Amino acid sequence: MKTDSIVQTIPLSGRKRSLIEDARRDRESGSSSPGPSRCGDSFVFEEEKSGKVTLNILFALRNEKNAGFFKAGKVFETFEAKLLHLESRPSRKSKKSGEDDLEFFMRCEVHCSDTDIFINSLKRVADDVRIVQEEKIPWFPKKISDLDKCNHLITKYDPDLDQDHPVSEKHGDPLPVVEYTPEEIATWREVYGTLSNLYPTHACRQFLEALGQLESERLYGEDKIPQLGEVSAFLKERTGFQLRPVAGLLSARDFLASLAFRVFQCTQYIRHPSAPMHSPEPDCCHELLGHIPMLADKEFAQFSQEIGLASLGASDEDIEKLSTLYWFTVEFGLCKQNGTVKAYGAGLLSSYGELLYALSNEPQYKPFNPAETAVQPYQDQSYQPVYFVSESFEDAKHKLRQYSSTIQKPFSIRYDPYTCSMEVLDEPSKIQNALAQMRDDLKILHKALERLGQK
């Protein structure tokens, strides 16, 4: 629905500053943390935060295999290298020469500072030691508890920002209960009441359904600010998403990585009462009213996780593009429903003025195309001149997956929902295990269809 009645309020700019500008800063400075590297045909992962690197090494031992192997073992012992995997085979060269040589493949973990001298020492006791120059790929979390390391806050000074924010928690900690002041609750009441008048005509169907559920379960209402613990439990039951409190604006890479685990980093502080319709950074009004209802929808939750998965191990340039994609979809996206354009972006659903503007005759609409959206210039001083309209969340998810497949990475990743961890599919056995699990799931679905057909 469109309207010509526009209320000019300042749009929310904090998430944009957190994601797009931060990602652009990282790309220009090349400051992303090093991560996976490639040795030969195998990919290895450098855990920069632990000070160690995992190496894949190929080498050969001639004739006196036992003596040579013991000498190689002494090198590993000297540098406190942790052996992770070992394979051996007859040397290909020995088949031609008739000599009884062996080739070894070793995966080991050593201190980053010892890498060069470790390799040189191994070359003194072994032949054909092969390792190539490392291809730096940014570190990314492999399990949900690794999100404790994804806590890089944007700390640049801004006089408009409230510096007295709660600190972030560790994985597994109970979500803190905040006692809001009467003044803060009054601010929430004004924001909630004002936006609620627009939702029936401006918000998408999925948002309205989830908001109705939140209100019917008495988690949402004008008279109290929802607590993250209760809201997180609500989301967990519906889409598997859970909330994690954060102290401020996270870096783009860390924020997107959290989405890959279906974790939404959420603030608990509220905007200043002097400007209830504006916040220079994401506050609980933006998170609870804009993001939470949409994350309760399964299709949208999957779309959000897909952006996060695409970001893992991505280059700084791709992080900037994914941040822009996130900005024009999750934050400021529009969709078609019953022939009418509706809002699903959190930045719109938590901003009275921009919600009116986005569905007026003022801005330009473009169909959602990830390749075009990812490089769309954005406006950080006023409302966006361009909004992207999705045909449906299913269509948007399909297009996002196609776009993600074009991001150059030396590996593929599979999310394991049972262990809440990422599996790097860099070995045939891992792919076979994943396929076996898919076959088991398909058998269950096939059996269910057979039973339905018998009724």
Automatic annotation (TrEMBL):
Swiss-Prot/TrEMBL cofactor(s): Fe(2+)
Main location as per UniProt: other
Basic and acidic residues bias (residue ranges): 18-29
Keyword Metal-binding found: yes
Family annotation (Pfam families): Biopterin_H, TH_ACT
Keywords from the named record: Catecholamine biosynthesis, Cell projection, Cytoplasm, Iron, Metal-binding, Monooxygenase, Neurotransmitter biosynthesis, Oxidoreductase, Phosphoprotein
Entry GO MF terms: iron ion binding; tyrosine 3-monooxygenase activity
Ranges in coiled-coil conformation: none
Function (record text): Plays an important role in the physiology of adrenergic neurons.
Record's protein name: Tyrosine 3-monooxygenase
